[in-house]
Amino acid sequence: MKKTMVISFVILLTSMEFPLFAQAPAPLAPLQDDLYNWMVGEWEGSTESSMGKFADEMKVDWDLEHQFLDFRYKQKMGEGDKAMVYKGKGMMTVHPQTKECLGYWFGSFRDISTGKGTRTGNKITMTWEGGAGPETRTMEKVADDKMVMTFKGVGPDGKEMSGTTTLMRKVKKEKGDKKS
Question: CATH number of the domain that 105 lies in?
Answer without folding.
Answer: 2.40.128.20
